[in-house]
């Protein structure tokens, strides 16, 4: 990530595709750069359901809304966003609305197992025909299309690719603790030594927030401690959740939680990131929507903050993607199709991701449009081993991740010991 490698196959593919795009003068059918092609049949509004309400997340959504407005000026964007990082409040509300037959026109869902839940419940429509209409079949990496496809059908349009296993750090806090901001840590054990120094200097070593951010931290510890193959095995049954390797990972998690702020349960992710921005905490583990937040505050990478993979996860890309759906019974179906056109368009993906901190799902985006962090993520996505995020719907169905969240919350609040915690995690995954 810090190594500034630029020669991955993906990047080469992107560069080649970008050149082709430039040579063709832009392909409006797939890029959708001018105006949209959906026959909207006079549709006047579209309700878009997300949980992007502030900071870099809102800025990303705003960028997409602007492109949508250019493509479909006659359709009013109705913001159905519900605050709460990672959909912590939105997802339950969405489920009640879907069950009550009151769906929004479109909602964000995570590629992978979370989306598979909506598909299995018959709550979202097959939109394979729109992929043909918008020219999307060749726009996304095949691995991502495979993840979105169930029984040969595709049910959503991905807006981005996010990375989960990133440490965001405060150079000023590290210096105040006598640490070199340029230092790298090859393992969690090396990282613990630095955290001890930060604590000795009277600061919070690792900021964290409410339960879902603790689950997020846990997934990165599992990646680090187990390695990519055994981590992937947690989700296909080949790694035993009751085994000693998982016990060792949970011991690391126990130690990490010991370094965190005790007011964590009352905070959301922007608060924990803010502790790093303000120099009150040295480290925070968060997905790269944090990069969007830093950008929204005009902070400069390398000066105001630094980033590196969670120690022990270099070479792994903790994968998640936000993808927009067409719910069964959407009140403004044509308008929802128009929204999906904007989401899949080159311009929509560019404007959205520049502000969001993520990278475009489309492979023909121009890396030069993105900042240093994002270019490193584009590079890493092309060369790293992809491992699915637990906290963001890629690895496990919603019921499993809810049960894991309950176990984590109980454990970090002091309601269970490590043995019980491990038993509860094993039972959650089943
Ligand atoms: C994730 C989502 C990201 C970001 C994050 C924090 O679940 O995929 O786009 O919004 O939550 O809210």
- Second CATH tier, the architecture of the largest domain: 3-Layer(aba) Sandwich
Number of helices in the DSSP assignment: 19
Structural class: alpha/beta
Question: Termini, distance in Å?
Answer: 35 Å
What is the number of strand segments? 14
What features would you describe in this structure?
There is one protein chain. With 430 residues, the chain is an alpha/beta fold. The chain has two domains: 177 residues, D-Maltodextrin-Binding Protein, domain 2 (3-Layer(aba) Sandwich), CATH 3.40.190.10; 194 residues, Periplasmic binding protein-like II (D-Maltodextrin-Binding Protein, domain 2, 3-Layer(aba) Sandwich). The protein is built from 19 helices and 14 strands. A five-stranded mixed beta sheet has the order 2-1-3-13-6, with helices on both faces. α3 links the parallel β1 and β2. It starts with 8 loop residues before the first helix and ends with a helix. The N terminus is likely disordered. The structure holds beta-D-galactopyranose. The site of beta-D-galactopyranose has 14 residues, from loops.
Strand-helix topology:
Layout: H1 9-23, H2 28-31, E1 45-49, H3 55-71, E2 76-79, H4 90-99, E3 106-110, H5 113-120, H6 128-134, H7 142-148, E4 149-150, E5 153-154, E6 156-158, E7 162-163, E8 166-169, H8 171-176, H9 188-200, E9 204-207, H10 211-226, H11 228-236, H12 244-258, H13 269-277, E10 281-286, H14 289-296, E11 306-309, E12 316-320, E13 322-325, H15 333-344, H16 346-356, H17 372-383, E14 385-388, H18 398-412, H19 418-429
Parallel strand pairs: 1-2, 1-3, 9-10, 12-14
Antiparallel strand pairs: 3-13, 4-5, 6-13, 7-12, 8-10, 8-11
Bound molecules: beta-D-galactopyranose (GAL).
Beta-D-galactopyranose (GAL) binds at residues 51-52, 57, 85-87, 110, 162, 269, 287, 289, 320, 322, 392.
């Amino acid at each position: 990530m810090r190594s500034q490698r630029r020669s991955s196959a993906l990047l080469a593919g992107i560069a080649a595709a970008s050149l082709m795009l430039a040579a063709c003068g832009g392909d409006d059918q797939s890029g959708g750069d001018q105006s949209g092609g959906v026959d909207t049949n006079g549709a006047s509004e579209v309700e878009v359901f997300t949980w992007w309400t502030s900071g870099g997340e809102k800025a990303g959504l705003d960028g997409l809304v602007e492109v949508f407005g250019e493509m479909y000026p006659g359709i009013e964007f109705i913001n159905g966003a519900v605050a709460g990082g990672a959909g912590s409040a939105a997802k339950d509300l969405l489920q009640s609305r879907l069950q009550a037959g009151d769906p929004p026109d479109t909602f964000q869902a995570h590629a992978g197992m979370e989306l598979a839940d909506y598909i299995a419940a018959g709550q979202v429509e097959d939109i394979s025909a729109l992929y043909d209409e918008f020219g999307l079949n060749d726009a996304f990496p095949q691995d991502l299309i495979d993840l979105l496809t169930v029984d040969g059908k595709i049910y959503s349009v991905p807006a981005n690719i996010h990375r989960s296993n990133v440490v965001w750090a405060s150079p000023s806090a590290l210096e105040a603790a006598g640490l070199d901001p340029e230092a790298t840590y090859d393992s969690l054990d090396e990282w613990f030594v630095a955290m001890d120094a930060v604590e000795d200097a009277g600061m919070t070593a690792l900021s964290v927030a409410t339960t879902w951010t603790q689950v997020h931290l846990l997934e990165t510890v599992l990646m680090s401690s187990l390695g990519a193959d055994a981590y992937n095995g947690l989700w296909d049954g080949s790694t035993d959740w009751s085994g000693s390797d998982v016990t060792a990972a949970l011991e690391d998690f126990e130690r990490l939680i010991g370094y965190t702020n005790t007011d964590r349960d009352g905070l959301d992710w922007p608060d924990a990131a803010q502790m790093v921005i303000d120099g009150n905490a040295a480290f925070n583990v968060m997905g790269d929507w944090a990069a969007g937040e830093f950008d929204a505050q005009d902070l400069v990478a390398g000066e105001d903050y630094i980033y590196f993979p969670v120690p022990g996860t270099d070479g792994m890309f903790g994968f998640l993607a936000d993808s927009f759906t067409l719910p069964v019974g959407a009140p403004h179906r044509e308008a929802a199709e128009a929204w999906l056109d904007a989401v899949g368009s080159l311009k929509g993906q560019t404007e959205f991701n520049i502000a969001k901190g993520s990278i475009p799902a489309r492979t023909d985006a121009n890396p030069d449009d993105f900042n240093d962090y994002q270019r490193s993520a584009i590079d890493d996505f092309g060369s790293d081993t992809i491992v699915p995020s637990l906290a963001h719907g890629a690895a496990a169905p919603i019921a499993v991740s809810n049960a894991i969240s309950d176990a984590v919350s109980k454990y970090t609040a002091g309601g269970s010991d490590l043995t019980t915690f491990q038993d509860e995690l094993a039972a959650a995954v089943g």
